[in-house]
Design goal:
The complex is a heterodimer.
Chain A (H helix, E strand, L loop, with lengths): L5 H22 L4 H26 L7 H15 L2 H7 L3 H24 L4 H21 L1 H4 L22 H24 L1 H11 L1 H6 L4 H27 L9 H14 L6 H19 L3 H16 L3 H24 L2
Helix pairs in contact in A: 1-8, 2-8, 2-11, 2-12, 2-13, 3-5, 3-6, 3-11, 5-11, 8-9, 8-11, 9-11, 12-13, 13-14
Chain B lengths: L3 H9 L1 H32 L6 H19 L2 H22 L9 H23 L17 E3 L2 E3 L1 H23 L1 H11 L1 H6 L4 H23 L10 H15 L4 H21 L4 H15 L12
Antiparallel strand pairs in B: 1-2
Helix pairs in contact in B: 1-2, 1-11, 2-6, 2-9, 2-10, 2-11, 3-4, 3-5, 3-9, 3-10, 4-9, 6-7, 6-9, 7-9, 10-11, 11-12
Classes of the chains: A mainly alpha, B mainly alpha.
Chain lengths: ~325, ~300
């Protein structure tokens, strides 16, 4: 494995994962598994992009759901414009996805360049505040967005490249592609020298600045990238539901995303994805017993944060380290009788 | 969407001006109470209480029940403040005190979890529907007339109470023995505990005090606003905008900003109802760009 450049390795891994997802799609008998996975893909994109900020840059954004929902809304609103679909024909969906990606990135760039100057606490608050502003804009522009009702009436999704997104399997394949592409993008960013700058800003911002890193620019770029990647999650969700709802931008979505990162493990790349799956299991289990999922979720968060104090993969890493230390200590005992 | 005529008409009629201004001032006062609770807790404990809105909600709902049970609004306000304080102290002891030394992420998650639990608990106890208290019996008296406009007596009570309580809290923190101990403990907790003072008790009390301010704001808001689970979020966001505009740590700044925001809200609801939030954000962004320390803030870096 060491023969490959890390970038190539990441790309190969992503390709293998994509093929694996397609295989699952081909052999899965019903659509239940595919729909579940599609939901996880959307949440996974939200969480992995936020991980870029929280885990790698140390920027605690409490308003990430705005970009997630933003992607869904831009995608839906563009495709609901008859002129756009007529002009672009079969390329409507890819172009709308690209527009959602870029448009959300622009939005994140504006918010990021305002917020990145601020200290940690203000940053968390202002990102949340901008999310609330986004919600109030959506609710205000009833004519364009449907207000509280959400973007209704279905989103036209013309077939492209032989993919008809009305079909569950094609929809799944498209979502899997976006998911793999988004996660690969996050992976490449963290492996690049820019990713090293991000970690340096996280660990010691002053030192990074002293070494000539433009920390403000680094933060703004990270915020923009994270926002654009999160928008792909919104696109997945919009394709899946054929609608867009203001609830996607509610603050509980942002809070839950933060929790999923923490639950899965803050200090590993794959932790957040583990968190997404774990959260889904917690959610489904509580639904079996009670309709008060929020209460259960809140108590689960308190338990994880106050009692466990770390996520699943972090815990595993600590456990492995402890075992390694114990075994090497034993070897030393053998070596020195 | 834009209705600037209504706004201009209002500016040309003193009666409308008086009514809208008084509405704006009471919104501002509620914001000021919540914001000063946040500032109090942040200033001493260096914890941002993202769950502050939940205490506002708890205060409002408790006051609603207390008013329906006893018929006395004064008791209801007291009950709202006390219930928020008690729950705040329990929350501080069980959860927040364990994350004082942790990073912001953990504090934020704890507060988020508390809001989820509190919202759901309110839904279980009082139901998910909107509740309204109505103007309490004590204040169902003819309104004051002032330059052709009407000012309900309840508004006067609300403004006077909030101002008096917020100022009393500030004096308490600045000049009383309690305030001095708390501030000293914030600087160096182990030194203060060596002097034989139970620091955790003081921290819990201060947290409870901040929550009591939010609870009281909720109780005061109950007659003029409808109540719903999750009502705390919007006032939390507004109160943070207040602290940003006014300057973190500056109480006079918070007062000024709160009234500014309240008046913007009340006039904005006439002229540009859909863009009130947008205008408030533009104000906040302008402050952040041109005067990052806030209107009356002192410390430059943040």
């Amino acid at each position: 494995m060491t023969r490959f450049h890390p970038f190539v390795r990441a790309a190969l891994l992503a390709f293998a994962a994509f093929c694996g997802f397609l295989l699952v799609g081909a052999i899965s008998p019903g659509t239940w598994l595919l729909d579940t996975l599609t939901g996880l893909f959307a949440a996974g994109l939200l969480v992995m992009s936020l991980h870029l900020l929280i885990g790698y840059t140390g920027l605690i954004s409490f308003g990430h759901a705005a970009y997630y929902a933003g992607g869904g809304y831009i995608f839906g609103m563009v495709l609901q414009t008859p002129a756009f679909v007529a002009a672009c024909g079969p390329w409507s969906v890819p172009l709308a996805t690209l527009l959602a990606f870029c448009g959300t990135g622009l939005f994140a760039l504006v918010v990021g360049s305002i917020c990145a100057r601020l200290s940690e606490i203000y940053f968390a608050f202002l990102t949340l505040a901008f999310q609330m502003l986004f919600v109030s804009i959506i609710q205000g522009l009833v004519y364009y967005t449907g207000g509280d009702q959400g973007l209704m009436g279905g989103i036209p999704r013309p077939a492209f490249l032989g993919l008809d997104l009305v079909q569950a399997r094609d929809r799944y394949a498209f979502s899997a592609f976006l998911f793999v592409a988004g996660v690969l993008a996050v992976r490449l960013i963290t492996l690049s020298s820019f990713g090293a700058s991000l970690r340096m800003v996280r660990d010691n911002e002053r030192r990074a600045a002293f070494l000539g890193v433009n920390t403000y620019l680094v933060k703004v770029l990270a915020f923009t990238a994270a926002g654009s990647i999160a928008s792909l999650g919104g696109v997945v969700l919009a394709v899946f539901t054929s609608a867009a709802y203001p609830e996607w931008a509610s603050w509980s979505v942002s809070g839950e995303a933060i929790f999923m990162i923490m639950l899965g493990g803050l200090h590993s790349f794959w932790g957040p994805l583990v968190g997404v799956v774990a959260m889904r299991i917690i959610n489904d289990l509580t639904l079996l017993y009670t309709t008060h999922t929020e209460m259960a979720k809140g108590l689960a968060i308190l338990f994880v944060v106050l009692v466990l104090k770390r996520g699943i993969l972090d815990w595993l890493a600590d456990w492995r380290k402890a075992r390694h230390a114990a075994s090497s200590a034993k070897e030393q005992d053998h070596a020195a009788p | 969407m834009l209705d600037l005529d209504a706004l201009l008409n209002c500016f040309s009629a003193t009666s409308c001006l008086v009514t809208q201004t008084s509405t704006g001032i009471i919104i501002g006062m509620l914001l000021f109470l919540v914001a000063s609770g946040v500032t109090l807790i942040f200033g001493v404990l260096h914890v941002v209480n993202f769950a502050h809105g939940a205490f506002y909600m708890i205060g409002a709902y408790t006051a609603w029940s207390a008013y329906n049970a006893t018929g006395s609004y004064y008791l209801a306000v007291l009950a709202g403040a006390l219930s928020a304080a008690v729950i705040g102290i329990v929350f501080e002891r069980l959860a927040i005190s364990r994350v004082y030394k942790e990073n912001l992420l953990m504090q934020l998650l704890v507060c988020y979890a508390f809001v989820l639990v509190a919202d759901d608990a309110v839904k279980m106890i009082w139901g998910a529907e909107y509740l309204a208290m109505g103007i309490p019996a004590e204040f169902r008296v003819p309104p004051y007339r002032f330059a052709g406009g009407v000012v309900p007596p309840f508004y006067v009570f609300l403004v006077a109470t909030s101002l008096a309580v917020a100022i009393a809290c500030l004096l308490l923190i600045r000049y009383s023995r309690f305030g001095k101990i708390v501030r000293a403990a914030a600087q160096n907790a182990s030194m203060v505990s060596v002097l034989g003072i139970r620091v955790p008790v003081y921290f819990a009390a201060l947290f409870g005090l901040g929550c009591a301010l939010a609870g009281m704001a909720g109780a005061l808001a109950a007659p003029v606003r409808s109540m719903t689970p999750g009502m705390g979020l919007s006032i939390l966001i507004d109160s943070f905008i207040v602290t940003v505009i006014g300057g973190m740590g500056s109480i006079p700044g918070a007062l000024l900003a709160a009234i500014l925001l309240g008046v913007t809200r009340s006039f904005g609801s006439l002229g540009f109802p859909l863009f009130v939030d947008g205008v408030m954000f533009i104000m906040m962004v302008a402050i952040l760009v041109f005067r990052p320390q806030g209107l009356l803030g002192e410390r430059a870096p943040r």
